[in-house]
Amino acid sequence: MRFRGHVRNLLGHFSRFGEESCAGSLASALHVLNPYSSRGEGHAALGLDELEVVLEHTDAEESMNELWGAFGAMDELVIPALTAVVFVEPLPNQPGYKRNVRSAQFRPQLRERPVVGDGLGLVVADPSCVPFRGHFEYRWKVYSDLRKHITETAGSLTEFASGFRKLGFTKDEETGAITYREWLPPAKSVSLVGDFNNWDEGATPLARDAFGTWEVTLPAKAIAHRTRVKFCATKHDGSTVHRVPAWIRWSCPDLGKFGSTYDGYYWDPSQAGQDDYCFEGFQAARPALPSSLRIYEAHVGMSSTEPKCNSYLEFARDVLPRIKEAGYNCVQLMAIMEHSYYGSFGYHVTSPFAVSSRSGTPDEFKALVEEAHRLGMLVLIDLVHSHVSSNADDGLNGMDFGQPEGESYFMTGERGYHKLWDSRLYCYKNYEVLRYLLSNLRWWLEEC
Question: GO: which molecular function terms (predicted)?
Answer without folding.
Answer: 1,4-alpha-glucan branching enzyme activity; hydrolase activity, hydrolyzing O-glycosyl compounds
